[in-house]
Amino acid sequence: MRILAFDTTNSTLSVAILEDQKILAKSTIFENGKQSEMLIPEIEKILTEAKIWYQDLDYLAATQGPGSFTGVRISLSSARTLKLATNLPLILLDSLEVLAFKYRHKFGQNSGKIFAAIDARMDEFFIGNFLSNAGEISKISESQLVSFSDVINFLPKEKFFLCGSGKKILAEILENKNFEFEYNEEEDVIEADLVGLLAKIKISGEILENNSEALYLREPRISKRKEEK
User: For the structural domain made of 96-182, what CATH number should be given?
Assistant: First the structure.
């Protein structure tokens, strides 16, 4: 099974090609704001690197948000365009679930809670609650947008592992509060190989969600400005 996977929903552009669990080629670019112009050239660059082309693929996998409005729009529109052009099945994944999936082995063969938080700017987080059980990730609640002041109402009551671009901000908010958690100093970006691996698990387990919509969770700022005029 060969999967072309990519993410543009936050501050990076990441593309990968996987054959089963093997990464054939991967690229992650830290240039925020250039995802639109760089995505397709980067896809075709790593296809060439892997010595395959679109007709050699079996699936497309991409993130549908949450994340920056522009990044989510680029991801979803590009995924739909590639699906139409290649006639390949498309798997769309929650960005927060991909972040939690990175730490799926955190608790070994035991179970534990993973709380993913993406810094959404404007004193808000995109958040998701997940359960890791013997390396398998499942959603506890749907992804949502919450303010810094309200986020404590959505946290697990028992000890949890914190991940995502908002983890350090949230850790500061929780300082001297009665929450037991841990996190690491590693920067958590959404990497396309994780998108591909999670997509493969969902395909193999036939647990695909029939959802082709973007997880914006927040209206674009320009719409609010127009309404105020």
Answer: 3.30.420.40
| Three-state DSSP class for residue 229 | coil
What would the CATH number be for the domain defined by 2-95+190-222?
Answer: 3.30.420.40
Q: What is the distance between the alpha carbons of residues 153 and 151, in angstroms, rounded to a whole number?
A: 5
User: Under a CB-based contact definition with an 8 Å cutoff, are residues 181 and 201 in contact?
Assistant: no
- The alpha-helical segments, DSSP class H, found in the chain are 35-49, 69-86, 95-102, 167-173, 192-204, 221-228
Up-side HSE of residue 149: CA atoms within 13 Å toward CB?
1
Q: Which residues of the chain have pLDDT under 70?
A: 32-33, 206-214, 216, 218-229
- Are 16 and 5 in contact by the 8 Å Cβ rule? The answer is yes
Q: Which residues, 6+ apart, have CB-to-CB distance to 103 below 8 Å?
A: 114, 132, 161, 163
> Backbone phi, then psi, for 198, in 5-degree steps?
-65, -40
Indicate where the chain has its CATH 3.30.420.40 domain(s): 2-95+190-222, 96-182
pLDDT digits (tens, 9 = 90+) for 46-101: 999 999 999 999 999 999 999 988 889 999 999 999 999 999 999 999 999 999 99
Residue 202 in tokens: 């969902």
Half-sphere exposure at residue 93, Cβ-oriented, CA atoms within 13 angstroms: 33
| pLDDT in the model for residue 30 | 84
